[in-house]
Amino acid sequence: MRRVSLCVQGVICMVFLVAAQGCNTDLTGLGDGSQSDLDPSETSGGVSGGSGPHIESDGQVVVEAEHFTDEGSDWTGAFGAMVELDSRNWILQESAASGPAPDPDGFHSGASGDAYMECLPDTRVTHDDPMDPGSFYDDGTGGAWLSYDIDFQTTGMYYVWARAYSTGTEDNGLHVGVDGVLADAGRRMQWCGANEWRWSSAQRDTGGTSCGVNGTITIQIDRPGLHEITFYQREDGFEFDRFLLTTNAAYTPQGAGPRESDRTNP
Q: What range does the domain containing 179 cover?
C-alpha cells in the first residue's frame, strides 16, 4: 500500500471540532504516476454492487454520485423547529428527466451507469436571470448537499476530481468538504466547456483564470478509517455523475473513468 503524506500547517476549527494537520516529510509516491490501479486506459466507468461505505485502496476511490449515504437541503432552527429555507434538492436522473420544474436542459445521456444527480429546480440558466433565493451559494454555506461514507486506508492529501455536465456559466460549480468541515481548498470547484460530460479538479480563479487549474481542489485525510465526504451546491441545475479521489498528482481521469470502487458489503 502506498502512503502519501504532505507538509501542511494550520488548524481548522468548527464547533467543538479541531482538525490538526501535521507535518510529515515522507513524500513517497506523490505524483509519480506509478499506482497500478490509476490506469489511463480505464475510461468506461461502471457501477459496483453492494452497500455500505466505499473502500479506498492504494490512494484511490471512485464513487457514483447516485450512491450517496445521505442528502439534504439548507435547514435551520427557528422557533424551536426545523424550517427548510432552500427549495433546491438533488434529484436522481435515469433515462429521462424527472423532478421539480424548471429543468430547461432536460436529460443528458452518457453518464456512467446511465444515472446522475441534478440540483433542481434550475431557475438561473443565464447570467442575466434573476438570482432567486437558493439558486447560488458562492462560499458553500447553505444549499443542497450529498454525503458519502468512505473507508480510507491511506492518509494524506487527495486530489478531488468530479465528472459533471454543464450547459453554461450558471450550472458549473460545486464545493467539497470532509467530516462536516469545508476548507478553502474545497471551495468553488469549477467547470469550463459546455454540453458534454467533463472531469474537473480546478478551483475557480486559480492560475489567473476564472476556469482555474486542475489539481487545485483537494481534501486532507489525517487518519485511516471512516470519513464523510460531502458535496455542496454552488449553483442550481448542476448535473453530477461521479467523483474520484486520488493521492496521485499526475493522474487525470479520461472518458467515464475507472470502475466504481468496491463497498464494504459486496
A: 36-265
